[in-house]
């Protein structure tokens, strides 16, 4: 059975639940209810890991450990 985390209500919903929300309010699917309950924490950890990977990539490309503070958008003056 699949489970979903509803970000609007903060509750876990089962896939077979006829009242399950649709679309943008849901994160998942997750294999277990426990995994779905940890959806926000899992998303936070993944986002931090992706941010760190991007920081390391920019540092490798530029050789500058502070390159993550540089903004190359000309509109940000």
List the defining traits of the structure above.
single chain; 77 residues; alpha+beta; three-stranded antiparallel beta sheet; elongated
Report on the structure:
The protein is α+β, with helices and mostly antiparallel strands and 77 residues long. It has one domain (3-67). Helices cover 38% and strands 17% of the residues. The protein has helices at 33-37, 39-62; strands at residues 3-6, 11-14, 26-30. It has a three-stranded antiparallel beta sheet. The longest helix is centred in the middle third of the chain and has 24 residues, at 39-62. The protein is elongated, with a radius of gyration of 18 Å. The mean pLDDT is 87.
Note the topology.
Layout: E1 3-6, E2 11-14, E3 26-30, H1 33-37, H2 39-62
Antiparallel strand pairs: 1-2, 1-3
Number of strands: 3
The percentage helix is: 25-40%
What is the overall shape? elongated
Query: How many structural domains can be distinguished in the coordinates?
Result: 1
Strand order of the largest sheet: 2-1-3
Put simply, the count of helices is: 2
Order of helices and strands: EEEHH
**Spans where pLDDT lies below 50 across 5 or more residues:** none
Average of per-residue pLDDT values: 87
Q: Tell me what portion of residues adopts beta-strand conformation.
A: 15-25%
Distance between the termini: 51 Å
The largest sheet is: 3 strands, antiparallel
Output the radius of gyration.
18 Å
**SS-based structural class?**
alpha+beta
């Amino acid at each position: 059975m699949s489970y979903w985390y509803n970000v609007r209500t903060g509750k876990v919903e089962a896939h077979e639940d006829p009242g399950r929300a649709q679309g943008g309010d849901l994160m998942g699917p997750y294999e277990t209810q426990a995994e779905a309950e940890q959806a926000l924490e899992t998303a936070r950890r993944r986002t931090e890991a992706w941010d760190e990977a991007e920081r390391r990539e920019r540092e490798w490309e530029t050789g500058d450990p502070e390159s993550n503070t540089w903004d190359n958008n000309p509109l940000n003056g």
